[in-house]
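Re: How this chain folds, sequence and tokenised backbone to follow

Filed under: protein folding, tokenised backbone structure, sequence and structure records.

Contents: The amino acid chain and a row of whole-number tokens, matched residue for residue.

Body of memo: The sequence and its backbone structure tokens, given next.
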Amino acid sequence: MLSKILKIVQLTPVLMAGVFISSLQVLSAEEQQMRPSIGNLTTDTTAQKVNNNIPSPSEPRVPNEVNKHSIGLGLGQTFLRNDFADNGNDKITPDIYYNYSASYSFDFLANLHWSKHQYLNRDVTIRGLALSIKGKGYQFDAFSPFVVGGFGFYLPGATRIINNVPTETRNQLVFGMNFGAGVELRLNSEATVGVIAHYHDPFNLRQELAPELNGSYMKLLILGMFTFR
């Protein structure tokens, strides 16, 4: 009896070791079944799933768009200079603007304006179609400063006092140049607001029996634009 007990005691460690090894083998087999192979991890399907789970970089709040047309209205003060200032008063006037976004940095800008300025028994009428290139230095979010420059067609006129007699200048279409600067804030894909300082300098208008008409003017405007395709 004692000898049987001694044999059981001696065999117990061996049996324990066998059970432990068998358990490890069973766990290893189950783990292999649950763990994906290296090949599965590198397949196109898995790569696509991982790529879909990666968050995409945030897009600009208002993305840039090209080949778009915009039309708007500017409202602000017109400051007369030279002969224009001698015969008319500064006042608030409206302007019409058209903008075409040719690229991410440059736009085509057209400005149409007409106004009459009176002073005592004299007056000045300014009419113009200014064509210019609009360049954006940089864009920070939806905010961007810009400069404009180009040429245009002007039809100025005035009633002046010459030899104590009110005398009207003759009507003649003249060439001229314009330039300016401003900033704009794009509210959404359709609406833009901003301010612009726009200087216009028509070439001198010669007269037959009177001094030539020499003048220029500056416009400081609040601008609103509506964009469409």
